[in-house]
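Re: that backbone. Tokens:
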């Protein structure tokens, strides 16, 4: 009787498992084939988002850099009696000229307000204000 039970257990285990311990009749959806491809496709939007964020940071940094030069150019032009807005526009790249504003300060300086655009789509992220001052040369 005991030998008979061992034989049944052995036959049952041989019939229910196939090669490499996988259960016969297992759905092909459970195999690991293509898993790396699925993970890569799922990761691509995250990679795209990180690239867009890094680009936005680079754009904001360049806007700060250019606005400093534009504020100095506007203050120089104002100090000699020239057109401050025109001088600032001459320094800034085209995308940063949109909604550019200049304000004269009480101390005779110039405050330049530059809008930082979004990398993706239209609109503005924020505005930065840069100040510069030169003594009046007139």
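Recovered sequence:
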């Amino acid at each position: 009787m005991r030998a008979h039970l061992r034989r049944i257990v052995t036959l049952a285990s041989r019939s229910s498992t196939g090669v490499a311990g996988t259960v016969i009749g297992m759905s092909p959806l459970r195999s690991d084939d293509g898993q790396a491809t699925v993970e890569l496709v799922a990761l691509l939007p995250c990679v795209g988002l990180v690239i867009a964020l890094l680009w936005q940071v680079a754009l904001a940094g360049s806007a700060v850099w250019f606005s400093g030069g534009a504020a100095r150019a506007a203050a120089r032009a104002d100090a000699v009696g020239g057109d401050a807005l025109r001088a600032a526009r001459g320094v800034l790249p085209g995308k940063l000229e949109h909604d550019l504003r200049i304000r004269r300060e009480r101390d005779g300086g110039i405050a330049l307000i530059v809008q930082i655009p979004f990398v993706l789509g239209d609109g503005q992220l924020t505005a930065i204000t840069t100040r510069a001052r030169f003594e009046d040369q007139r």
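The longest helix spans residues 35-79. The domain at 35-132 is CATH 3.30.1300 (Pantoate--beta-alanine Ligase; Chain: A,domain 2).
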